[in-house]
Every structure is written in structure tokens, then in C-alpha cells.
Amino acid sequence: MLDQTVADFSLPATGGQILTLSAYRGSTVVLYFYPKDSTPGCTSEAQQFRDLYPKFVAAGAVVLGVSRDSVKSHENFKAKQNLPFDLISDSEESLCQRFSVIKMKSMYGKQVRGIERSTFVIDREGLLRRAWRGVRVTGHAQEVLDFLIGLGPLGQNDQGTGKG
Fold first, then answer.
1. What is the distance between the alpha carbons of residues 143 and 120, in angstroms, rounded to a whole number?
2. What is the pTM (predicted TM-score) of this model?
């Protein structure tokens, strides 16, 4: 999937909008998937992206969060956490399936289907440049930002690894 074009999508998002990937052509997109609004890990992750958001913008990137929560839940979460970026509602899991982030997870000793915390960087031309799966929250937003800075002014590098 790396270095391949990410197909356009159209999903409801905060602000009463239908968000499409193609609307962000020309910008680097950080698409981060998280399990559930207002849970401790997801709140911490959103706060880290929020706190670094001006640096993401300075690097030419747009941050978008994705979960299966409703737009109403997203609106409440966004307002409570003062998030400067939009949250996408993928209640039917179409985007989650496309990025293969739905996994069986163990919760309180039971197997449940849920979103594996994952982040993807899509460059200005719509190519997938980096994927992080099974993300640990602490320091992750900074790691993504560091990768973006390594992409340089064109939003691209040689290998999609952040080292080129």
C-alpha cells in the first residue's frame, strides 16, 4: 500500500460537512484512526495532535481523526478538547476497512472488534507515504511530525520511511 495512490473517500465529519480526501490535494494529510471518543488513550492522543497542530500546519499538513463514533459524539469530543482539526465519522467502517485497521482485540478478557490505533501520511499527490500500526500514544504525534519534517518542502521523500 505504501507509495500507492489512496482512493478518494467521502464521509461525514465535524462542522456539518462531508469530507473528501480530494479536497486536500496539494496538502499532506495525517489520517489517524483511534478507537473511541473521550476514552483516556484517545483523549491523550487527540490532545497531543492538538498541542502540536501549529507545527503540523507549518509543515504543510492537515490532521484528520477517524473513528466509528457518530458526528454528534465527535462534535462533543472536539469541543471539549478544543481540537483545531476535523474528526471523520466512519460508522459503517468503510475507511477503516480500506486501511485494514479493524482488528480483534482483547478487552476485559473478551474478544471484541475494534479499531487498532493507526496513523497514515498521505502526500500532496495522494500517495501513501507512511503507516504506523498498533500505535502507542505517548510521543506518537511528535514522531509523525518528525516524519513530516523529514519529507521536506515537497511532502515527499525517496522511500516513504522518513529517512530519505
1. 12
2. 0.89
